[in-house]
Design goal:
Layout: H1 3-9, H2 51-63, E1 68-72, H3 75-83, E2 91-95, H4 100-108, E3 116-120, E4 136-142, H5 154-163, E5 167-171, H6 176-179, E6 189-193, E7 207-211, H7 214-227, H8 233-243, H9 246-266, E8 270-274, H10 284-290, E9 297-302, H11 307-315, E10 321-322, E11 332-334, H12 346-352, E12 359-362, H13 368-379
Parallel strand pairs: 2-3, 2-4, 4-5, 5-6, 10-11
Antiparallel strand pairs: 1-7, 6-7, 8-9, 9-12, 11-12
Helix pairs in contact: 1-2, 2-8, 9-13
The structure holds ligand P1T.
Ligand P1T binds near residues 102, 174 and 207.
């Protein structure tokens, strides 16, 4: 099956053997009856497995061209499960430009458990190698990065991780499987905050992991069951429904993202626009090579801008909603320095370009004329 067909049918062959419902039913149950101890229809207790979650896990694995999918209660719960494959003394090399909550989980929790993190600019993949020690176990990449829209060369990083026998985990939240499939490019683990584009309607918090390796899948399944941060049946249903229109929505997100990025680039009050589709984006060529299109996330800074200017702009938007999160049908705008990335110390933020006037847009699927006129009036 090709991608669009997979988005709708992938892994959904037998979602309701009872009645043949076309959509996976919501199995809102905590447990399943057994005729004799250990004798059941495939499910025992809903933390260990639930048919609705199972349908979602198969759908996510299918669109990522992976063998095994796992669904969690949030994107961070999925990242947390991945980190639990490590032991005290292990080291992780992570991109230094990443979602603030991921940084907080690494630095605020796992560092205290004896895991060492190196935060490195990964646009030049070769920079990674100088941080590898005998204790290094994992490379953590996010591309496009949140919020600076840097593009990391997954294939080049995968070559390094393979050479040194490390695991490469890629957070594919911003691109989604529609734009890039990290496992095909050599990654070992692909992770999503399915709260975003996969859910697509700003009505659920959830996360996922997809892997090919059977042993790694078994280890992650053990952690999912033992730690228990699973996606519930209703949330699984919502993400599954979202995936069925992912390709349609992403196409429009990309079209509108392009229109917004080009409009901002021409605007006299805008200093710099960060969108990988722009010719002058430093990683444009890699983006062209590894992505089908360039996505709907756009960041920009204001000329001579301060937090005050950014806040005034954000307060005057009408069609864009000022809110955390991204990837829903509606356009959102945020201020990374005080919102999504406030948990990264200011010094670290400055190093990666998260200046006080930086604004991040999640461009939705509304009419682009309405989006552009909203930006125009708020800028004026
Ligand atoms: O919010 P949650 O579902 O737990 O996902 C965390 C997460 C992981 N990875 C990336 C790239 C993310 O952007 C996020 C969540 N991000 C936001 C809430 C935000 O507004 O950037």
């Amino acid at each position: 099956m090709k991608f669009n067909t997979k988005a709708i049918h992938g892994g959904q062959e037998n979602v309701d053997p009872g009645y043949g419902s076309v959509m996976a039913p919501i199995y809102q149950t905590s447990t399943f009856s057994q005729t004799s101890p250990g004798s059941h229809k495939g499910f025992e207790y809903a933390r260990s497995g639930n048919p609705t979650r199972d349908a979602l896990e198969k759908a996510i694995a299918s669109i990522e061209n992976g063998k095994h999918g796992l669904a969690f209660g949030s994107g961070l719960a999925a990242i947390d499960a991945i980190l639990k494959t490590l032991k005290p003394g292990d080291e992780v090399i992570s991109t230094n430009d990443l979602y603030g909550g991921t940084y907080r989980l690494f630095n605020g929790i796992y560092k205290n458990f004896g895991i060492k993190f190196h935060f490195v600019g990964m646009q030049g993949a070769t920079a990674i190698e100088s941080f590898i020690t005998t204790n290094t176990k994992m490379i953590w990449a996010e591309t496009p990065t949140n919020p600076m829209m840097n593009i990391l060369d997954i294939k080049a990083i995968a070559q390094i991780s393979k050479k040194h026998k490390l695991l490469l985990a890629v957070d594919n939240t911003f691109a989604t499987a529609y734009l890039q499939q990290p496992l095909d490019l050599g990654a070992d683990i692909v992770m999503h905050s399915t709260t975003k584009y996969l859910g697509g309607h700003s009505d659920v918090i959830s996360g996922s992991i997809v892997v090919n390796d059977d042993k790694l899948a078994e280890q992650l399944y053990f952690i999912q069951n033992a730690s228990g941060a699973i996606a519930g049946p209703m949330d699984s249903f919502l993400v599954l429904r979202g995936i069925k229109t992912l390709h349609l929505r992403m196409q429009r997100h990309c079209e509108n993202g392009k229109a917004v990025a080009e409009f901002l680039q021409r605007h006299p009050k805008v200093e710099k626009v960060y969108w990988p589709g722009l010719q002058d984006h430093p990683n444009h060529e890699i983006a062209k090579k590894q992505m089908k299109d360039f996505g709907g996330m756009v960041s920009f800074s204001l000329k001579g801008g301060s937090t005050k200017d950014a806040v005034r702009f954000l307060e005057h938007l009408n069609v864009f909603t000022l809110a955390e999160s991204l990837g829903g049908v509606e356009s959102l705008a945020g201020h990374p320095a005080t919102m999504t990335h406030a948990s990264i110390p200011k010094e670290e933020r400055k190093k990666i370009g998260v200046v006080d006037s930086l604004i991040r847009l999640s461009v939705g699927v509304e009419d682009k004329e309405d989006l552009l006129s909203d930006l125009k009036q708020a800028l004026s």
